[in-house]
Amino acid sequence: MNNKNYFEWTPDLNVGIEAIDEQHKVLVSIFNRLTLAVSKDEGDRVIRSIIDSLMGYTKAHFSLEEKLLAEASYDGLSEHIAQHDEFIARLNDLATKFFVEDIPAYSELIELLRTWLIDHIRISDKKYSEVLRQANFSTVAWERKAQSEFYKLSDTTVLRIPDAW
Ligand SMILES: [Fe+2]
Prior knowledge:
Elements: H1 18-39, H2 44-71, H3 77-99, H4 106-134, H5 140-156
Bound molecules: fe (ii) ion.
Fe (ii) ion binds near residues 65, 84, 120, 124 and 125.
């Protein structure tokens, strides 16, 4: 693939909670779709729709993850929410550049996703999943809710992304 930023999912990124892992894989796919669109210069309309989907999916994923951590009474919940909020704030700043100021800050966006998002999964998300596992917290009920939320989401957000997944 002619995409130097292509990110390959590796098993060390799995947190061991199926719904979360599936959502993380979708986020990585959106990231790869974005870097492909940028590397092939597919144009503003396509790239903007991918950014739009990325933001929608990320926000939904974060809020479901936060619900899970709240249900599990996870000690690090407020710190985790603060990390999510910081990331969303940075995404919003970049989205403002794209959508309002018309500045194509692609490399900034790709760098943010590559470093922040992937590290967040690798470090912070794996940390909570380990704590939940050690506490024997069952994620079954939450997973059922999370899946149905994401079926709804996949009808809207994800399917709006232009081809070539
Ligand atoms: Fe997270």
